[in-house]
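=== RUN LOG ===
request id: a7f3
mode: sequence -> structure
chains: 1
length: 198
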Amino acid sequence: MRSILVPVTFFLVFSPLTGLSQGHEELSELELRVQETAQSFVKTLGSTLKSTIKTNGHEAAIEVCKTIAPNLANQISRETGWRVTRVSLKTRNPLLGTPDNWERAWLTEIANNPRPKNEQLMTMALDQSEHLTTLRFMKALPTGELCLTCHGKPNDIPTNVASKLRKEYPNDRATGYSLGEIRGAISITATISHEAKH
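=== RESULT ===
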C-alpha cells in the first residue's frame, strides 16, 4: 500500500484527523495520548523552571533546560516508545534541537504567518503503509515572560545570564525573541505496528 502524508494544523482546539481517524479507535486514542503527553511535558518543564528560578535564580534555569528538559524527553520516549523532543529554527543546542524537514516546514510557516498570542498552535500528519501508521505531532512553544530572561532580546537578558549562556552554548542562536513569538515546538513521533493484525 502506498504511504500517504496528511498534514492538519489546529488552532485553539485539538481534534481528530477528519476522515482518517473516524471509526478508528486505536488511532483516535493515540491522537489524544500524544496531545496529553505534549501538554504534560510543557507543564512539568514550566513548573520546574519556576521553582528553580524562585529558589536559585535565573542562572540555575539554564541547567534545567540543558539537562532536565532533554532527560524528561528521553524518559517519556522510553516509557512510550515514541520520539519526543524540542525543536527550533534558532537552536541553542544543534545536536538536540535541529528540526527535520517536516518540522522545519511547519515552524517556518507559523513564523511567517503570526497568530494571535493567546492562540495555541498544533499540527499533525499521518503516514500510513500496510504495516505501519506513523503519527507526527507538534505543539508550538510561545515565548512567555519567564522565557525572555534567557531567550529575549539583549536588553531582556541579565549580564550574568548572558555570560553563562555564552559559556554553556557557544553556538547559541536561541535569543532575540519577543513576548508571544513562537520559539520552537514540542515534537512527537508515534508509530503503530499492524504486524500483529495480519
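=== NOTES ===
DSSP finds six helices and five strands in the chain.
Strands lie at 4-11, 83-87, 121-128, 132-142, 182-193.
=== END ===
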